[in-house]
Amino acid sequence: MIELVDPDVGFHVSWLEAAAEFAAAGDYQHGSGLAPDDMPDDLTEDRAILSFTLLLATLLAGFVISLGLAETNPVLTTLVSILN
Length: 84
Description:
Elements: H1 12-24, H2 47-70, H3 74-83
């Protein structure tokens, strides 16, 4: 079963290496959400960009998890039924 997990900065370097391998072959990581023009290069490896990306991923993961909790939480279930 597919599982949503929190991002891990420990994979950042290996992900960049994999992206570079695809770029060197003239291809891109299909399904990564990146178009060929979005491929990382040496100028874009910035801690601020990484931090912001991880923040967005964490917020999205939290939102998705909260959607799952909404189905079992009586307070949220009541709120959703009122809003509908």
